[in-house]
Amino acid sequence: MTSRRSQRDTVIPYITRDGSEIRELMHPAIHENQKQSLAEATILPGQTTALHRHHQTEELYHITAGHGLMQLATEEFPITPGDTVCIPPGTPHAVCNTGSEPLRILCCCAPAYSHDDTELL
User: Fold this and answer.
1) Under a CB-based contact definition with an 8 Å cutoff, are residues 77 and 70 in contact?
2) DSSP per residue over the chain, as a string?
3) Contact between 55 and 21 (Cβ < 8 Å)
4) 1 falls within a domain
5) Closest CA to 68 of 88, 46, 41
6) Comparing C-alpha atoms, which of 62, 54, 55 is closest to residue 108?
7) Distance in angstroms (rounded) separating the CA atoms of residues 34 and 31
8) What is the tens place of the pLDDT at every residue in 43-93?
9) Domain range spanning residue 88?
């Protein structure tokens, strides 16, 4: 049964191909939305996600907690709570948690996230 509502604490997390823990807060495979997905990624202190890209999906990362380093194509820059980063389709990217607490990122994907659209580099 699909729904238009999701409660974070009831969503069971899983590990994506890039190595981050994801909670799908809203996804067409589960909910009644159609063209995008919203997830919360958690990267533990010292952890770095695998460098990867999505051929179809544009992503928006909004940092809600923690500190890290974002690799976006050939550029690297620090990320902190309140930052939002646009990741165009086809752009290699990775995130490293440089802080002492979990790095939490809200990830909006359009079209919705798909393992098949994730290429590890």
Assistant:
1) yes
2) ---S---GGGSPPEE-TTS-EEEEEE-TTTSS--S-EEEEEEE-TT-BPPPEEESS-EEEEEEEES-EEEEETTEEEEE-TT-EEEE-TT--EEEEE-SSS-EEEEEEEESPP-GGGEEE-
3) no
4) no
5) 46
6) 62
7) 8
8) 999 999 999 999 999 999 999 999 999 999 999 999 999 999 999 999 999
9) 22-115
7 assigned to some structural domain:
no
| CATH number, domain containing residue 53 | 2.60.120.10
Select the more confidently predicted residue: 62 or 114: 62
Please tell me the total count of domains within the chain.
Answer: 1
Q: Tell me what the mean pLDDT of segment 93-116 comes to.
A: 95
In whole angstroms, what is the distance from residue 4 CA to residue 45 CA?
33
Name the band, by pLDDT with cuts 50, 70 and 90, for residue 1: very low
- For 2-11, how does the pLDDT look when each residue is reduced to its tens digit (9 = 90+)? 577 777 878 8
Residue 107 falls within a domain, yes or no? yes
- Whole-number pLDDT of residue 2: 58
